[in-house]
Write a structure and sequence with these properties.
Shape: elongated
Strand content: 5-15%
Largest sheet: 5 strands, mixed
Oligomer: single chain
Helix content: 55-70%
Distance between the termini: 26 Å
Order of helices and strands: HHHHHEHEHHEHEEHH
Radius of gyration: 23 Å
Strand order of the largest sheet: 1-3-2-4-5
Number of strands: 5
């Protein structure tokens, strides 16, 4: 079953890489360097060509080292690809400066245009989580539901942090969903007015997105990130393991199994 899921994830990512404009445009830009380099190498001296080749090899080796580190440390493919593309763009610009400063400036402009016009796609599967509107969430909290606990993620998919963590709730819901604990997702990008109701700041400088709130019979009992009275968030590295510890998901699951 796990092997089948891995194959499905692989096929899904391959489909995204050849169909999503965000990835297609980046591939075209990186591929264009080979065309530019092949065309320009004819006018370079042999000494400069050798120097350029050395710098390219160094850049590739450094990139491979960073990619290996990120592959081990990152929990999600969204975060991994975001980091790889970021480092790749940096190395491409640096190497392009050796050829021509104007070429490097052109790449900077093109990357800025791609960043403005396209967006990295978030993880689209829901698992056992439910996509909610603010009205639906309010009905659940005020009128009750079959589940005693609700762990709700508040996200906005114009935030890179939310895209990187977009599979957390889906994965956690598959493991920890019970009749006693349900998972929900509210997109504040679509419903920004709901942010104030739940005490969430949409400001990029404060960094409160994604926000997670655990409700017990409609009453908030715990949240992350926690905010003090001066509206400063406590910065921690967000991961599925951290969310499990913070909201004690293992305890909720064990209690449900024992009661059952």
């Amino acid at each position: 079953m796990k092997e089948q899921k891995s194959k499905n994830d692989w096929y899904q990512w391959m489909n995204l890489l050849i169909s999503e404009p965000y990835y297609v445009y980046h591939f075209i830009i990186f591929f264009s360097y080979l065309i530019v380099r092949t065309s320009a190498i004819q006018i370079f001296s042999s000494d400069f060509s050798y120097l350029l080749l050395r710098r390219e090899i160094q850049a590739v080796l450094a990139l491979l080292m960073l990619v290996t580190v990120k592959l081990v440390k990152e929990e999600t493919w969204e975060g991994f690809l975001s980091d790889v593309l970021f480092f790749s763009k940096g190395f491409l610009i640096v190497v392009s400066m050796l050829i021509d400063i104007q070429l490097a400036l052109c790449y900077i402009v093109v990357f800025f245009v791609v960043f403005t016009l396209t967006q990295q796609p978030p993880y689209s599967e829901l698992g056992h989580a439910t996509r909610l509107t603010p009205l639906q969430l309010e009905v659940i909290l005020t009128e009750g539901s079959a589940s005693r606990f609700w762990l709700v993620e508040f996200r906005a998919l114009n935030s890179s942090n939310c895209i990187r963590t977009s599979r957390f709730v889906s994965d956690l819901s598959i493991t920890y969903s019970t009749k006693n604990l349900s998972f929900g997702i509210v997109d504040l990008g679509l419903f920004p007015n709901a942010a104030e109701k739940y005490g969430i700041s949409m400001g990029a400088s404060i960094g409160q997105l994604p926000a997670y709130i655990l409700f017990d019979n409609g009453v908030e009992v715990k949240r992350f990130p926690e905010v003090d009275f001066e509206v400063r968030t406590f910065q921690k590295r967000l991961s599925k393991k951290f969310l499990c510890r913070h909201f004690e998901l293992d305890r909720h699951l064990i209690e449900y199994v024992h009661v059952k």
